[in-house]
Amino acid sequence: MPMLHVVNKSPFDRNSLESCIRLATKGSAVIMIEDGVYGATKGTTVADAVSKAKNELAIYVLGADLKARGIDDARLIDGIKVVDYNDFVKLTVENDKVQSWL
Amino acid sequence: MSTTKRFLFVNRKAPYGTIYAWESLEVVLISAAFEQDVSMVFVDDGVYQLAKGQDTSQLGIKNFSPTYKALGDYDVNKIYIEKESLDARGLTLADLLDLKYEDEDDDWAEKDSIHVVSSAELAEIMDQQDVVLSF
């Protein structure tokens, strides 16, 4: 049963991204929004874990939140997909369940 | 009979996700208007507040990052950034806003407001303050 996981907290402030990656089952989708988008950037202390998670999970990041924070697409970990609000809605509909990692 | 105190504002949160960054900036500007000796520190996710190229047009909230550029005019020119926090986030000084001030004691020469410091140096800076406010 595919599930969409929503992460909205910075990985340096909370461990929600870490827990999400640990507990999401293979084939699930993860979307990073709000301060969660920092987890999608290269060269950080969590980038390796996110990169590895991509083997089993589809990882998305909300473009509007990247833009607000001045994060250029070039700074993103390879293979993470940038989506807009319409795509976000589609993801919530396509998946059976949505889990928000507050 | 006014007293000048050394005020330090410690910023540890990313912008936009919470209101702390904006609130801090407002209080900093108020303190400076009361002619206090103000310093600012950016550690942990606080370093993201100074990221270049912020554009909140799609979020419908105010992009307050240009306001940091006004700090120099308020004589807030002691802005310290912890190197360890930048490193952990894969950032360098080049990723941050270029904040300058004009030094009235040096024929208004333009100088950098931002100083990248180590944790040890930062600890010392924090120790020298009269008042520390955390955001």
User: How would you sum up the major sheet of chain B?
Assistant: 5 strands, parallel
Structural class of chain B: alpha/beta
The CATH topology of chain B turns out to be: Hypothetical Protein Ychn, Chain: A
First CA to last CA of chain A: what distance?
A: 22 Å
**Contiguous helical run count of chain A:** 4
Describe this structure in words.
The complex is a heterodimer of chains A (about 100) and B (about 140). Chain A contains 4 helices and 5 strands, in the order βαβαβαβαβ. With about 100 residues, chain A is α/β, with parallel strands linked by helices. Chain A has a 5-stranded parallel sheet with strand order 4-3-2-1-5. In chain A, strand 3, helix 3 and strand 4 form a beta-alpha-beta unit. The radius of gyration of chain A is 12 Å and the shape is globular. Chain B is of the alpha/beta class and about 140 residues long. Chain B has one domain (about 5-135): Hypothetical Protein Ychn, Chain: A (3-Layer(aba) Sandwich), CATH 3.40.1260.10. Chain B has a 5-stranded parallel sheet. Chain B has a two-stranded antiparallel sheet with strand order 4-5. Chain B is globular, with a radius of gyration of 15 Å. The termini of chain B are far apart. The model of chain B has no long low-confidence stretch (mean pLDDT about 95). Classes of the chains: A alpha/beta (about 100), B alpha/beta (about 140). The interface of A and B includes residues 8, 41, 45 and 47 of A.
